Hints:
There is one protein chain. It is built from ten helices and 15 strands. Helix 1 packs parallel to helix 5, helix 3 packs parallel to helix 4 and helix 5 crosses helix 10. The longest helix has 19 residues. The protein is of the alpha/beta class. A seven-stranded parallel sheet has the order 9-8-10-7-11-12-15, sandwiched between helices. The two termini are 40 Å apart.
Amino acid sequence: MANKILAYPFSRENSYLIRQILFEKKYELESLVTLSKWCPEGVDGNYFDCGKKMNIAISSSFENELKKVDSVLWLGKEYLDNNQLFEKVKNAIVFALNSKKDIICCQILTDSELSFFTQIAREKGAHFCYVANQFEYDVCKTNNSCIHTPIVAVAGMSEKCLVSDMSYYITNALREEGYNVCLVCPTHNYGLTIGAEVPKSIQDNNCNAVTKIDNLRNYILDLQKHNSPDIFVVGVPKGLLPTNDRINDDYGTIAYDFFNAMNADFTIVNLECKLYPSKFEEELEKLLQYRYNTQLDCLIMSNIAINSESLAYADSIEQLEYNVYSNDDLVNIMSKFKGKRTIYNIHNEEHINKIKQEIIKKMSF
Length: 365
């Protein structure tokens, strides 16, 4: 694959992946192209998450940006029933292939769609690298060993509390201290960044809860055996509690499986950016102790929150709208949090370093 890459379609839901690619410097990202009608032309890539500057401008002109690069990173996205939007993206990829640009495809495709794009690439002398499929894993074997490696768990009150971002931030902070960290990603990373991802076969819906927990524990044990890490950072998928009966985050069942499989040594919980009642922290401690078999060690406030008006019509998490807050607004809301713990800012490097020191102290490294 050539060096200079255009990432498309760039959005809030995949900004965490772009940030990690930038951190690892595995690819030379040149352009970020969005489908958003509301994103101003030329703003920095941090527009969607209000995080640290990416120093790459966002554009809406795919064809113009394509002239600057050698390859396109086709980012995965949920389109629901918006076939028109998906067709627009597919047409852009066809244009790129006809322009003899290589494609790294993170978008899940049907067999016929994959065959279609692969054929065009072959005809034009370009590469079409399909990385959207998750790898297979043998879940039948049993392992009676113990997980002796310390585990930092990162969970969110809801699915969109920036658990992926926080998992990467903590992983990177610990690696900078020289620790061999094995990151277990809460979302699909397509093999583009350093980090293991949990195969879908492990969380097969046809399995009962005990089997799922055993599968997860065996998978972590395998990672321990083959990577010999100093520490695990495990991003917990979905949320701890349902938002409502329609946006339910699987009612916390996936988080339940993860926490009971790994017995976390240090648990971080990400919160939405909003005001909380005075007894919230106390109730959260009880929830973690009695349902999730873990203790609360650290609270993080993300800079996003569900738009309450969208809850009235959204039937799935993909249909929800979110408010993204500036750092000043986030700090203001954090100052009103009433609890015995310090609440940390997810995009504050000094705060991330403080959490890192808390982890190191508790783990007695």
